[in-house]
Amino acid sequence: MQKPRLVLIAAIIAVATAALFQAQVGYKQPQLHEKEKAHLRNIQQLSFGGENAEAYFSYDGKKVIFQSTHGPYKCDQIFTMNADGSKMTLVSTGKGRTTCGYFTPDGKRIIYASTHLGSPDCPPPPDPAMGYIWALYRSFDIFSANADGTGLKRLTTTDRYDAEGTVSPDGKKIVFTSLRSGDLEIWDMNSDGSNPRQLTDDIGYDGGPWHSQDGQYIVWRAARPKAPQDVQSYKDLLAKDLVKPDKLEIMIMKADGSEKRQLTSNGKANFAPFFHPNGRQIVFASNVNNPNPRSPNFDLYLINRDGTGLQQITFDEGFDGFPMFTNDGKKMIWGSNRNGKTGSETNVFIADWIE
User: Fold this and answer.
1) What is the 3-state secondary structure (H, E, C) of 189-243?
2) Which class would CATH give 34-353?
3) pLDDT value at residue 70
4) pTM of the entire predicted model
5) Annotated domain spans of the chain
C-alpha cells in the first residue's frame, strides 16, 4: 500500500524541482499552441539553455540520450538524462564533435558518432558565406560504449564520414550513413561493426535512417538531384566533404534495401522521420508550409506509410524537429526553439501523445 504513495511523492518532488529550476534560470512554463492540442498534452521542457537536439528515448522510455553544447562544451557532446530531465550526465569523451546518440534495446550500451580521434578540438564549421551547409567530417566514426560512457569501442574505421547511426529493435544491426563508397548512402552493419552492407545506391544524399518497431522497414531522408547542374553542384560540394540539405524527401524501404518508395514530393527540407509504434504512420520535420526558405520555421508532420494522410502536428513559429515516440506511443519527445531566451536556443521537450 505504500508504493503508490511513494510514487506520488516522487512525482510531486520532480514537478516542484523542475518548477524551481525554471524560476531560477528565468524560463516560463512552456505552452502548446491551440492547434497542437489535437495530438499533444502536458508539455514539459527537459533542457534549459544552449543547443540541445536529437533527443531519443531508451527502449523502456525511462532514459533519454541527446547531444548538447551547454556548459563548457563549444560543440556537441552526448549526454543522457532521465525522462523527467533529471540526472544529466556526459557520456561521450568531451572531445571533438559528436552526433546521433542512441541506446541499444537492453539499455546497457549506447552508440554515437564522434570526431575525437581526429582531434580533441572542435572541427571548423563550414564557411557561413556558403549558406546553410552541413560538414561531412572525415574523422566522424561510430562508437559504442556502456550506458555511462565507459568501455568505448570503435565500430567504423573508414577515412570518410560515418555517422547518423541507430540500432535495430532486436539489437543485431546498426543502420547508418556513410561516404565510404564516394556517395552518401545508407549502410547497415552488425552491432559489433562487422559485415557492413550498402542499402542505397542512387546519386544524392541518403541519411538519418531508422528501423520500424518490427524491424521490417527503414525510413530515411534523401536528396535526389535530377537536373545536370544540380547533380554537378551536389558532387562539387561532396568533393569538399559538404552537403546542402535544402531539398530532402522522406523515403521508405525494406530492411534489406528492397522495395524503395518515396513518401513526400514537395521539394522542401523533410528530415528526421520516425515510425509511430502503430507501424502505419511516420512522424517527421519539414518546412513544407514555410514560404521563406531562409526562415528556420520547421514543424512536425504525420504521414501514412503509403504517403497519404499528411497532417501538421506542431505550429510554433520557430524550429520543431527530431521527433520520437516512446514504444508504447504514449509520449513524444522533440527539439524546439520555443520558450528559448534567444532565437537560436534549442531545447528538448516532451509531451503526452493523443491519438
Assistant:
1) EECCCCCCEECCCCCCCEEEEEECCCCCEEEEEECCCCCHHHHHHHHHHHCCCEE
2) mainly beta
3) 84
4) 0.91
5) 34-353
